[in-house]
Amino acid sequence: MELPFAEAWKIKMVEPIKKSTREQREKWLNEAHQNVFMLKSDYVYGDESYGGARSFYHMKDTITELTGFEYVIPTHQGRAAENVLFSYLVKPGLVVPGNAHFDTTKGHIESRKAFAIDVTVPEAYDTQLEVPFKGNVSLEKLEKVLQENKGNVPFMVLTVTNNTVGGQPVSMKNIRETCELCHKYGVPVNIDSARFIENAYFIKTREEGYADKTLREIALEMFSYADSMTMSAKKDGLVNMGGFIATNKKDWYEGAKLFCIPFEGFLTYGGMNGRDMDALAVGLKENIEFEMVETRIKQVHYLAKKLDEYGIPYQRPAGGHAIFVDADKVLTQIPKEEFPAQTLTCELYLEAGIRACEIGYVLADRDPVTRQNRFGGNDFVRLCIPRRVYTNNHMDVIAAALKNVYDRRDSIKRGLEITWEAELMRHFTCQFKRLG
Ligand SMILES: Cc1ncc(COP(=O)(O)O)c(C=O)c1O
Questions:
Q1: What string of DSSP letters covers 250-285?
Q2: How far apart are CA 381 and CA 315, in angstroms?
Q3: Is 10 known to be catalytic?
Q4: Does a cis peptide bond (omega within 30 degrees of 0) precede residue 370?
């Protein structure tokens, strides 16, 4: 007998199928407004699909437990969360103040012909000043923007920790006062939350009155003052990919969800798969344990100490996720127009194959109105340390490589010239020529 055709694989997983009664199905379908998309997948015969998957509810319930936000829209990463929420909220000519908006955040505002105005405290721009919360918002700068643009500010972005100025934390006092000030002007606050757990760690360890609180309690208090959050889950969520929007504002949820479906996917997966949603729920719960964050932050501070030994200047005090080397102070002979931080980033790569990231004049883009380079901020080389990947031996290698470049800094006489650049978020695709 000829052998029958069979599948080229065998099955190793078994899952029980729940059966339901007609009565239950009547009830569930009524609750779903006669729309089968809206059914939980538990209510479907043998289904663990994206539509209403158990993993979504696991993720959503975890987010609600840790942040207090009831409505959750999943997205495939942080910038996608911005894209979905900002599509609903940001219109041409509007003004969105923030403490040094992250590049994608600024990009999503400026690409909509709106204005991203930085209201970070001035201390953030003096890299050698040792103050505990350099990521803070300047309430004076913020109030000026709110006063001058009444009726034109759809929300404010509060980034914790403040990535662009060096992974610097924002104090609880500043979060509370910023939110109160915005609310006085009828302006909601969106927390850009990629590193909210690291921020909670710094509040616990640096701010009076929080030493005995858990990171969970601190995070809940941080979010209690705000109106919504956008999250890049690749950071404090400990996942390879993922993000979300969370809020208690039903009108924002209703408005944003209409953009989630065409851009990201249905409301119960938004570009993520079931495994990743489950992983995010687990990642958030693991990472909000003090020991977990402390281990990570101590590794970043270990690297900082090495740089101290070698006299290499960086944004002080060290923040939570990276060391930000002050390239302006290393390559002093290279003018801003030749991009010192981008030059130093290339030198470090040539020295030891280490890929850092420029968070400086290239990333700052051009002013959307004048088209001039924005040289007003810091010019950093960011040595960003992934969580739970490297040992301190690897930190020693990074520090030694940087020392070698630092020791021969006087021989680096010229920087780079841009030969091609995109109009927005140019640093990702920019092309340069070496000068000299
Ligand atoms: C503060 C902040 N916001 C937003 C984003 C964008 O997130 P994603 O890279 O997941 O798109 C990042 C990414 O680094 C970030 O650090």
A1: HHHHHHHHHHHHHHT-STTTTT--HHHHHHHHHHHH
A2: 10
A3: no
A4: no
Domains plus CATH for the chain?
Answer: 54-287 (3.40.640.10), 294-434 (3.90.1150.10)
What three-state secondary structure class fits 157?
strand
In angstroms, how far is the first alpha carbon of the chain from the final one?
79
CA 343 vs. chain centroid, Å, equals 25
Q: Look at ligand 1, atom 9, and give the residue with the nearest C-alpha.
A: 78
- How many angstroms separate the alpha carbon of residue 108 from the centre of ligand 1? 12
* Options 53, 80, 103, 324, the catalytic residue: 103
> Has 194 been annotated as catalytic?
yes
Q: Looking at residue 306, what is its pLDDT?
A: 98
pLDDT at residue number 14: 81
In short, whether 190's Cβ falls inside 6 Å of ligand 1 is: no
Let me know if 183 is a catalytic residue. no
Strand partners, 243: 75, 232
Calculate the alpha carbon distances from 162 to 95, 97, 212, 369 in Å: 19, 14, 24, 25
Question: Chain-centre distance of CA 296, in angstroms?
Answer: 17
| Rounded distance between C-alpha atoms, residue 260 and residue 266, angstroms | 7
Q: What is the pLDDT of residue 48?
A: 64
Give mean pLDDT in consecutive 10-residue pieces for the chain, a chain of 436 residues: 86 83 96 92 79 94 98 98 98 98 96 97 97 98 98 98 97 98 98 98 98 98 98 97 98 98 96 94 97 96 98 97 98 98 98 97 96 96 95 97 98 97 94 95
Q: How close is the Cα of 195 to the center of ligand 1, in Å? A: 9
Rounded to whole angstroms, the Cα distance separating 162 from 277 reads 26
CA of 104 from ligand 1 middle (Å) equals 7
- Any catalytic annotation for residue 57? no
Q: Is 163 in the pocket of ligand 1 (CB under 6 A)?
A: yes
Our measurement of the distance from residue 369's CA atom to the centroid of its chain's CA atoms, rounded to an integer in Å, reads 27
Torsion of CA 162, 163, 167, 168, to 10 degrees: -20
Residue count of the chain, please give it. 436
318 is annotated as an active-site residue: no
